[in-house]
Write a sequence for this structure.
């Protein structure tokens, strides 16, 4: 950790230039010749990236940032706060501490937390930042987390792990065994140290692949931020053998959309119908969950087709996703397309449809944007149709 960047005049310069073009600044002469210019530029770039993602860090004085990649890869404050709402207790150990955003929020829910980070420089940065952030109940270990668990030899209320993919695993199907630490291999060892474990994974992990590698899974949380899935959380409890619940959350500016269902529940019977008055498109967290029949059963709305994952109803309901009023349904054929959409402006979405959005736009000369939303999809009778809609939410 280079503390020279904490000099007041350098900190003021970093704050003043937050958001500025770093490539333009790099062409200027370094106004602080006793500190490497690249160090200062890196701080400016990383702080700029933190403005929206980490507002608490951004607005706190004398924060030191690691590389901009560490800032890009860390949890956002919103997803960290959501994670912290799932756990509580006396002690938690984070085996893959990183920049410490998750631990900042865990510290509000536990009497004490331990931050393990094998990178000594990053560990020192987080320790310094927690002092600025007034976190007083965290201890820091700059060592391999497996060694720390052995040496401390105590029981923890929770273990938290965010394993990272090994460099040699790129291009392969994403599996937890391809990550560091290798959680499936170490799981029995972890259970000697805690009965409750929360594992964060990248959103591209297939849920069934995660379940095939883990045991005692109680809940799988799918967290989206502004309709983009950011992370999966596998919540496991030693010897748990009951139902597995999928919990989806889409965190928006003014609310959080949630939808939960039991995995493999045989009581979900979807209904199918032709397009009615209103159309619903599930949010990204639900789309990742695969709980499409459960959505139809729970909300008592109809599916258009087994594989279309669009829903319809006569009466408008409050739905976790986008809602539309259907103004017209047309068949996907030359005559109807020429009459209704040729050379028009519209937002185009495809669901269970053989052509891409790009091809459709090109073929029918549809300009992007405007207030019209067109869903190219397949109905329950396997007919290709286009739903011309107006967005409600």
């Amino acid at each position: 950790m280079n503390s020279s960047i904490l000099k007041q005049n350098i900190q003021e310069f970093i704050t003043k230039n937050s958001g500025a073009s770093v490539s333009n600044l790099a062409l200027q002469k370094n106004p602080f010749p006793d500190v490497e210019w690249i160090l200062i530029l890196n701080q400016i770039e990383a702080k700029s990236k933190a403005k929206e993602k980490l507002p608490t860090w951004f607005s706190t004085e004398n924060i030191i940032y690691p590389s901009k990649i560490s800032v890009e890869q860390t949890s956002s404050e919103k997803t960290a706060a959501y994670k912290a709402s799932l756990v509580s207790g006396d002690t938690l150990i984070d085996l893959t501490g990183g920049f410490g955003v998750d631990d900042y929020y865990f510290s509000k829910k536990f009497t004490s937390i331990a931050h393990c980070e094998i990178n000594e420089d990053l560990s020192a940065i987080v320790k310094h930042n927690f002092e600025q952030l007034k976190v007083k109940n965290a201890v820091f270990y700059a060592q391999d987390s497996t060694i720390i668990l052995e040496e401390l030899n105590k029981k923890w209320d929770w273990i938290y792990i965010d394993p990272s993919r090994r460099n040699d695993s790129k291009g392969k199907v994403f599996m937890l065994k391809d990550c560091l630490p290798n959680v499936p291999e170490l799981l029995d060892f972890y259970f000697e140290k805690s009965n409750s474990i929360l594992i964060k994974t990248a959103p591209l992990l297939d849920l069934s692949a995660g379940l095939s590698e883990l045991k005692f899974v109680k809940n799988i949380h799918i967290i989206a931020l502004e309709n983009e899935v950011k992370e999966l959380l596998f919540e496991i409890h030693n010897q748990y053998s009951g139902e597995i619940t999928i919990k989806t959350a889409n965190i928006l500016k003014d609310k959080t959309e949630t939808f939960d269902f039991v995995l493999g529940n045989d009581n979900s019977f979807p209904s199918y119908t032709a397009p009615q008055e209103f159309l619903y498109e599930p949010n990204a967290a639900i789309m990742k969950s695969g709980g499409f029949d459960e959505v139809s059963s729970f909300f008592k709305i109809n599916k258009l087709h087994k594989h279309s994952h669009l829903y319809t109803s006569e009466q408008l309901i409050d739905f976790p996703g986008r809602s539309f009023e259907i103004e017209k349904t047309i068949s996907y054929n030359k005559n109807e397309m020429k009459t209704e959409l040729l050379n028009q402006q519209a937002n185009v979405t495809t669901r269970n449809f053989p052509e891409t959005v790009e091809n459709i736009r090109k073929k029918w000369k549809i300009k992007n944007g405007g207030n019209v939303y067109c869903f190219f999809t397949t109905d329950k009778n396997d007919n290709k149709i286009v739903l011309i809609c107006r967005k409600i939410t």
The chain has a mean pLDDT of 94.
